[in-house]
Amino acid sequence: MGKLFGTDGVRGVANKDLTPEIAFRLGRIGAYVLSKNKENCNIVLGKDTRISGDMLEGALISGVCSTGANMWDADIIPTPAVAFLIKDLKASAGIMISASHNPIQDNGIKFFSSDGFKLPDEVEKEIEDIFFENGDSIIRPTHAGVGNLIHINDARIRYSAHVKEKTKADLTGLKIVLDCAHGAAYKIAPQIFQDLGAETLVLNHQPNGVNINVNCGSTHMELLSKVVVASSYDLGIAFDGDADRALAVDENGQIIDGDHIIAIFAKYLKSVNRLPNNKIISTVMSNIGLELALKAENIEMARVGVGDRYVLEEMLKTGTALGGEQSGHIIMLDYNTTGDGIMTSVMLADIFKKSGKKMSGLASIVKKYPQVLVNIKVKDNKNFEEDNDIKKIMKEVEDTLKGKGRLLVRASGTEPIIRVMAEGPDKKEIDELVAKIADVIKNKRG
After folding, report:
1. In 3D, which of 341, 352, 355 has the Cα closest to residue 174?
2. Rounded distance, CA 10 to CA 155, Å?
3. Please, are residues 256 and 361 in contact by the beta-carbon 8 Å criterion?
4. Distance (Å, rounded) from C-alpha 80 to C-alpha 243?
5. Per-residue confidence band for 135, with pLDDT thresholds at 50, 70 and 90
6. CB-CB contact of 100 with 241 (8 Å)
7. b/e string for 178-187 if b means 16 or more Cβ within 10 A?
8. Domains of the chain
9. 126 pLDDT band (50/70/90 cuts)?
10. Cβ-Cβ contacts under 8 Å for 294 (sequence gap 6 or more)
11. Which residues are identified as catalytic?
């Protein structure tokens, strides 16, 4: 991670860590870096439903237009729609204002290049270097050279048509509950599912600026599970705040996470000869049960560090078509250039219908090892692994699990949190081992 950029753009508490002044400078510098060697620069802008989005949007527009670039505003729209619109409209770049699954006080700014991909590390570093060194020296055109704000009035229509054309799904006869997290999916997801023929019940689709992700969406799936079971629906889908990821629940209310979805997609894509090299990319957070399930289908799985950008980098490097995270970021390069919660959920529903099984039966492809994940809030999560006491307890636990399980301790790239994850055959033992590490981290960094 750099001084500004984390694993998914620039994030922080809006108007405190991420101020309008910072957004203005990011808009100027981002437009400058991403418009190099381009005669005209047009940047697509989207946002989720956070109250602070308007504030940051105004600053970004001012910054971008002050360089002579034009801002094409798509208003409230999912992150993957921004990635799609960049290519569809032949724009120079894209910006999404969102902190994804983070709480309301946070917000974020993430950039996309002209090919619809998130920026590589070296481009983010270039933006950072200019930001901290000579950002004020960027050209300021006058007269007719100043950029324009242009509203994309058909942004949702374009993205919806893309999802329907790519999936060619017919969801007639399915009963599906959608939890839109009071976020960017609140209008577009229900419309797409209804257009595809599904009978839908929609939850948490009335954003007011301060209720995004509050006890709803992919991080709080209790209500979705209850409603699916109580109303006898076939499937439930939960999006996060910017709809770049999705999780599901089966007819019994059991959660279907990204590991299940990856396995279901991999098996299906292989069956229709659309899984190059019979290989998928996942992360160090994926359960060993996913690895075993794929192995049984003669599908190889490679692990990378946490973050969908690292999944994508490895996919591009190896020519892999499918990758994703346990958290529900699923990347299908034949469909979009980034994690796409709406595309994922439509595909999942389509495969489910074609299978003729119950959702629980389809998800049973993955037999999960007990896995415990604890998120520990800390004052500072940088370089924690250099602390001798933390290093010692981690080594003890790794030795205990050797040959029968895994341990992963990592700093969040978006929040002041250290995540401790362990998995193995004995749930009680895993709970105890994770608790030991958590206690040391709390004492040292809490």
Report:
1. 352
2. 24
3. no
4. 8
5. low
6. yes
7. bbbbbbbbbe
8. 10-154 (3.40.120.10), 168-363 (3.40.120.10), 371-445 (3.30.310.50)
9. very high
10. 263, 266, 280, 300, 301
11. 100
